[in-house]
Write a structure and sequence with these properties.
InterPro entries: CPA3_Na-H_Antiporter_D, ND/Mrp_TM. The chain has 489 residues and is mostly helical. Helix content is 76%, strand content 2%. It has two domains: 266 residues, no CATH class; 211 residues, no CATH class. It has 21 helices and two strands. Strands 1-2 form a two-stranded antiparallel sheet. The longest helix has 32 residues. The two termini are 24 Å apart.
C-alpha cells in the first residue's frame, strides 16, 4: 500500500522544500513553505500511525534491493507515535517562530534558518524510522550539522563558542557510534538491525569482548548526543544561547531521536538476552539516577532563565535513562512516554520564556520579577509547564514518575523511589521561585503595569496547543503507555 511509503515521503517533503527556500527572497513565503511542509508531514505521520494501529508494524524497502542488502524503514508503535510527536512539536515551534524569529536573527538569514530546521527534522525522522545502522549514522551527521546551524545562526560570540563546543562533542559522539557499528559489522557482517540481532544470537558467546566494546561505544556515543550525565557539558551553552525556537527544537526533539536509536540498538539489535550478560544497563541506570539529581542541582544555581531550563533538560533526560536502565518493558515504555511528555512541555517552556525575554529584554531571573502581572497569559502557560516538570498529578510529569516508581518496585529497586522523590523536590526548588516572583510580592509587582508587555493571543496559540497536548498526554497516559509497551517486542 502507498501508505507504507509515507514515512519516506515525509522526509523527502522536508528535504525538497528545504532546498527550495534559498531560491526565495521573501521571508513570509519561506515561513509559509516551512509551515506547510511540516503540516503535510504531520498529516502523513498521523495517517501512518492509524495504519499501524489497524494493521500492525511494517517494513518498507527503499530502492530495488531488499534487506539486508538494501535499506529499509521499520515502523512500529513507537516509531509511529514519535513521528506524530516530532512533526507536531516542530509545526508548533515553526508557527511560533513566524512571529518571533525576526527579533532574533537578521532578515537575510531567514531562508537559511528554515532550511536548516526542515533538514534537521527530516534527519531526526530518518534516525527514528530507519532499520539500518549505517543509514542512521548518515542521518545523525546531517542532523548534527543542521543543529549547529540553528545555534550559530544568530552569529554572536556566545553562539559561535557554544556551536564549536557542541560540534566537537557531537563529532566525538558520532565517531564512537561509527566505531560501534564497525565492531558489530566485523562479527555479524550485517548493518540491518533485524539481521544483526539474528547473527548476534548465534555468535555472541564467541565474541563477548567485541560485544562489550560495541555496547560501550554506542552507549557513550549516543549518550554524548542525548546529554546523558556527565556527557551533557555542551547542552547548557547551546540551549541558552540559541534562538528560542532553536532551543525548543534542541531540547524537545534532537535529544530524543538519539535516545530512541540507543533503545533500538540495545533492545532490538542486541536484545535483552545479550545485554543482560553485561553491566551496561546498570551503568545507564546509575548515570540516569545521578543525572536526575545533579541536573536539578546545577539548575538551582543558575541566574539566567534559559540556563535553568537547559539544566532541567539534563535532569529530565535522567528519568529517560533511568527507565532504559531498569531493563523491563514497563521501564522502556515509561522512558518513551517521558520523552513525549518532556517534548511538548519543554518546547512550551522555552517558547514562553522566549516571549518573556523578547518583551523584557532580560535573560536574568531578577529581570523577570513581576512578569506574571505584565504578561499574565504567558506566565500561566509557563506555570502549567513547570507543574508538569515538578510532577503535579494528572500532568505527564507525574505519570512518568509514578510509573517509574512502579517499574522500580517491579525489579526490587526500592532506592530509586527515593531518588525520584528527591529529584521532584529539587525540580520544585528552581521552578517555583520563578513563578512566585513572577506573580507575588509587593517588591516584585511594584510599578508593574497589568498586561503592559503581553503578546497577542494569536502569537501564543502555538504554546496553547503544546500545553493542551501536554495535558492530554497526562490524562491519556495509561493508553499511551500501553500502546508503547505493545510496540517494544
Amino acid at each position: 500500500m502507498i501508505i507504507k511509503s509515507f514515512p519516506l515521503v515525509t522526509i523527502l517533503v522536508l528535504f525538497i522544500s528545504a532546498f527550495i527556500m534559498p531560491l526565495i527572497k521573501k521571508g513570509k513565503l519561506v515561513k509559509t513553505i516551512s509551515l506547510v511542509s511540516m503540516l503535510l508531514g504531520l498529516i502523513l505521520s498521523l495517517t501512518t500511525a492509524f495504519y499501524v494501529i489497524r494493521y500492525g508494524k511494517f517494513y518498507y524497502r527503499i530502492g530495488h534491493f531488499s534487506a539486508p542488502t538494501g535499506i529499509e524503514f521499520y515502523i512500529g508503535n513507537i516509531e509511529a507515535i514519535m513521528g506524530i510527536l516530532f512533526t507536531f512539536v516542530s509545526l508548533m515551534i515553526i508557527w511560533y517562530s513566524v512571529y518571533s524569529i525576526d527579533e532574533e536573527i537578521i532578515s537575510s538569514k531567514i531562508s537559511l534558518y528554515y532550511l536548516l530546521i526542515n533538514i534537521l527534522i527530516g534527519s531526526l525522522l530518518g534516525v527514528i524510522y530507519t532499520n539500518d545502522l549505517f543509514n542512521a549514522f548518515v542521518f545523525i551527521e546531517v542532523g548534527t550539522l543542521a543543529s549547529c546551524g540553528i545555534i550559530v545562526v544568530k552569529d554572536k560570540k556566545d553562539n559561535i563558542r557554544a556551536t564549536l563546543k557542541y560540534l566537537i562533542m557531537s563529532c566525538l559522539g558520532s565517531g564512537l557510534v561509527l566505531m560501534g557499528i564497525a565492531f558489530i559489522y566485523s562479527i555479524t557482517g550485517q548493518l540491518n538491525i533485524t539481521f544483526i540481532h539474528k547473527e548476534l544470537l548465534s555468535v555472541y558467546d564467541q565474541y563477548p569482548r567485541v560485544i562489550l566494546i560495541s555496547l560501550s561505544l554506542f552507549t557513550v556515543g549516543l549518550g554524548v548526543k542525548s546529554a546523558m550525565f556527565p556527557l551533557h557539558t555542551w547542552l547548557p551553552d547551546a540551549h541558552s544561547s540559541a534562538p528560542s525556537s532553536s532551543s525548543a527544537i534542541l531540547s524537545a526533539l534532537v535529544l530524543k531521536a538519539f535516545v530512541l536509536l540507543l533503545i533500538k540498538v540495545l533492545y532490538r539489535a542486541f536484545g535483552m538476552d545479550i545485554i543482560s550478560e553485561f553491566p551496561v544497563l546498570n551503568i545507564i541506570l546509575i548515570l540516569g539516577s545521578v543525572g536526575m539529581i545533579m541536573g536539578s542541582v546545577f539548575a538551582i544555581f543558575q541566574r539566567q532563565i534559559k540556563r535553568v531550563i537547559a539544566y532541567s533538560s539534563v535532569a529530565q533526560m535522567g528519568y529517560v535513562f533511568l527507565g532504559i536502565g531498569l531493563g523491563t518493558e514497563l521501564g522502556v515504555a515509561i522512558a518513551v512516554f517521558h520523552m513525549i511528555g518532556h517534548a511538548v512541555t519543554k518546547s512550551a517552556l522555552f517558547l514562553s520564556v522566549g516571549a518573556m525575554i523578547e518583551k523584557t529584554g532580560s535573560k536574568e531571573l531578577n529581570g523577570l520579577r513581576g512578569i506574571g502581572k505584565e504578561m499574565p497569559t504567558t506566565s500561566v502557560l509557563f506555570l502549567l509547564g513547570a507543574l508538569s516538570m515538578v510532577g503535579i498529578p494528572v500532568l505527564p510529569g507525574f505519570a512518568s514518575k509514578w510509573n517509574l516508581a512502579l517499574a522500580s518496585i517491579e525489579v526490587d529497586k526500592i532506592l530509586i523511589i527515593g531518588i525520584i522523590l528527591i529529584s521532584s523536590l529539587l525540580n520544585a526548588v528552581y521552578y517555583f521561585p520563578i513563578v512566585i516572583n513572577g506573580f507575588f510580592g509587593e517588591e516584585n509587582l511594584k510599578d508593574k503595569v497589568y498586561k503592559s508587555k503581553s503578546k497577542p493571543i494569536k502569537e501564543l496559540l502555538p504554546i496553547f496547543c503544546l500545553i493542551f497536548a501536554m495535558i492530554y498526554a497526562g490524562f491519556r497516559s495509561g493508553t499511551i503507555i500501553n500502546f508503547i509497551k505493545n510496540g517494544i517486542v
